[in-house]
Amino acid sequence: MTFLRSLTISLLAAICIPPLQAQSDFKTAQLTITTIDVPGAHYTGVWGINSVGDMVGNYGQDTNVDSHGFLYSNGAFTYFDYPGQTVIVPTGINDSGLIAGSVGRNPVFGFLYDGTTFTTVKHGSDSATYVIGINNAGDLAGGTGTIYTTKGFELSGGHYKRISPPGSYVYVYATGVNNFGEVVGYTNNGGDQQGFAFKGGKFLSILFPGAMATEVLGVNDQGIVVGWYQQSSPPYDFYAFALKNGKYLSFKYPGTSGTFAIGINGSGQIVGEYTSDFSTYHGFITSPITAAGFEER
Fold it and tell me: Which residues of the chain have pLDDT under 70?
């Protein structure tokens, strides 16, 4: 599996992390979900979308072997690979069309791609630098360290800032950053996985009500957070969710075992992937979700 997908399926103030106060119930979102598949590919994942609807992601024939990049714009695919590498995962695109992502399995390094030139992103001597989110200023969010342990970061103006909630974690990833500097991400300690938001110098934990695991992967300028959660009872399926002001919306592509929301743009369009067998994956985009949608009951 590609590194980010395998992490997906695997498993307070500045002193403590109080849970984000959410309602004990949640609403099922009524969204139109449109499939986005690379022709002839065995799997497709859509990871990022900008305000004009340009999408980026990865595709291939075997998630354990190959991963190639694509840009989907105005109904047409453009394909690209990092020279000399068999694994590339584009994970974000901003309104200038600058694409961010990660390359390789071990070692791993990040990249920026303007459609012509790749720029490498690497933190010091770390053997793994995962770049996952990007905003319009070119600020990046991700994780650095090794493939066995990481700390979250935000890269702004050439300076790395650690984004790691209080506590001890095997993995911390910052996965999204909006244009107001709000950063989201998730922590993973094997059997304990939950999301977080970092805003105004404070961390808030994000755990979908009743879920056994929560992963946060994107945030837009309206503060709508998206990700996925796993049911805590059989059949232990994975559902996509959106969160705004402590209110959750859940959705799932019909008949699937896993639906994963990964990115969201300013219009509220959500992108991600779904699967029925965890071998074949299909990308998707939803109809827009708005802040008002969280209030409708």
Answer: 1-25, 296-297
CB 184 within 8 A of CB 196: yes
Please tell us whether the domain made up of 3-294 is placed in CATH 2.120.10.30.
Answer: yes
Q: Does the reported pTM lie above 0.85?
A: yes
Question: Rounded distance, CA 19 to CA 225, Å?
Answer: 15
- Cα dist. 136→98, 182, 266, 284 in Å? 9, 13, 11, 23
Q: How many CB atoms lie within 10 A of CB 102?
A: 27
Domain borders along the chain are 3-294
Listed in sequence order, the residues at least 6 apart from 148 whose beta carbon sits closer than 8 Å to its beta carbon are: 170
Dmax over CA atoms of the chain, in Å, equals: 52
Q: What is the pLDDT of residue 297?
A: 52
CA R_g for the chain: 17
Task: Dump pLDDT digits (tens) for 42-72.
Answer: 999 999 999 999 999 999 999 889 999 999 9
